[in-house]
Amino acid sequence: MAAFRTLDDADVKGKRVLVRVDLNVPMQDGKVSDATRIERVRPTITELADKGARIILLAHFGRPKGAPDQQYSLKPIAETAAGIFGRPVAFVDDCIGDTAEASANAIEGGDILLFENTRFHKGEEQNDPEFAKALAKSGDIFVNDAFSAAHRAHTSTEGLAHLLPAYAGRTMQAELDALEKGLGSPEKPVVAIVGGAKVSTKIDLLQNLVTRVDALVIGGGMANTFLAAQGVDVAKSLCEHDLADTAKTILAAAEKAGCAIVLPTDAVVAREFKANAANEVVPVDSVPADAMILDVGPDTVKAVNQWIDKAKTLVWNGPLGAFEIAPFDKATVAAAHHAAERTKAGGLVSIAGGGDTVSALNHAGVEEAFTYVSTAGGAFLEWMEGKDLPGVLVLKQA
Ligand SMILES: Nc1ncnc2c1ncn2[C@@H]1O[C@H](COP(=O)(O)OP(=O)(O)O)[C@@H](O)[C@H]1O
Ligand SMILES: O=C(OP(=O)(O)O)[C@H](O)COP(=O)(O)O
């Protein structure tokens, strides 16, 4: 028996179903540049629509600070979602209030609404019971299909499940099944690659991760914070200097646990964050004062690939560089190809995840070659730590 109720257990015909999805997709020039997260929720949406549910999608986008901010509007995503679902998706410019409720009440079975970014309200991230009540007014049933946001104890991922009958969507089920199958008892050595830009929200979980893996390769923006903590001048690079103590604690925890830490030894630096900006490769301790690290260098790539060769299990979240702008995609693409080849040759279980990581693997053309690609980054790493994810736990308790 499943640990939580699924769509098999829900009577959705004619009901207003609030479906939490993760539409926090990479965008470029106002357009969705990687639609994987939208494609992954299609089975849930199609099933609900075919069963006659009145579907209301709830989602966040980016990190607005609890107030409306049009650069984080979900409106441009409605059209892409409609194309992928093969059904119209009507956009409603708030997720609570009279218009939201009236819109939800007006739709018929099989119709789909997309409510505006839940993070336009402070109550979302505060998991405020009053905000939960306001959201719940538009629904009879709650379905959570956003595994990649399940590590957030927010109203639309957690609080709402206390107010409405709550069920897991098909993607939520599929993600948990696939991770359990691939990483339930991973073959050692286990090597993790963590990069990307969400340093403050991911750094804490590394402390636990180093006790579960044999080597942790740190790249991307995350590496700069560790290098700076070791006294390296990273100049204008993305870096959270106030997390130096946290970085040092993680390095000490890794040493205690016998986990090798692999940091960049060389870097590709540029003066501008834009495609084809003039760039050079320098040792990490020689970053020019007016430059920033935008990728790890070729020596570091060799070291990363050697760790991939040693691994029997690879977990990867976060690109090694700013892969969206050429040529700062080189290290990510090279490591992705190497991991893909090792996986295809047999002997490596490769599991990667994260909105931008999926996009980077697609960019490298290797998504199909990995053992499993999750839509989740932070949630996947927290799952790996053995933590109960709030959005999953509440479904189990429902
Ligand atoms: N050295 C770097 N400097 C600035 N940004 C970087 C650097 N390395 C990686 N990034 C950025 O990290 C972002 C992805 O980070 P993150 O959101 O943590 O990954 P994911 O969505 O896969 O979990 C990408 O947009 C990429 O441009
Ligand atoms: O993109 C997400 O996570 P990820 O970057 O870890 O893959 C999720 O949508 C969660 O977003 P958040 O990290 O702003 O809470």
Automatic annotation (TrEMBL):
It is an enzyme of class 2 (transferase). The keyword Cytoplasm applies. ATP binds at residues 202, 324, 354-357. InterPro entries: Phosphoglycerate_kinase, Phosphoglycerate_kinase_CS, Phosphoglycerate_kinase_N, Phosphoglycerate_kinase_sf. It is found in: Cytoplasm. GO terms for molecular function: kinase activity. Pathway: Carbohydrate degradation; glycolysis; pyruvate from D-glyceraldehyde 3-phosphate: step 2/5. The keyword Iron does not apply. Keywords: ATP-binding, Cytoplasm, Glycolysis, Kinase, Nucleotide-binding, Transferase. Substrate binds at residues 22-24, 37, 60-63, 119, 152. It catalyses: (2R)-3-phosphoglycerate + ATP = (2R)-3-phospho-glyceroyl phosphate + ADP. It comes from the Bacteria. Its EC number is 2.7.2.3. Belongs to the phosphoglycerate kinase family. Monomer. This is Phosphoglycerate kinase. It comes from Tianweitania aestuarii.
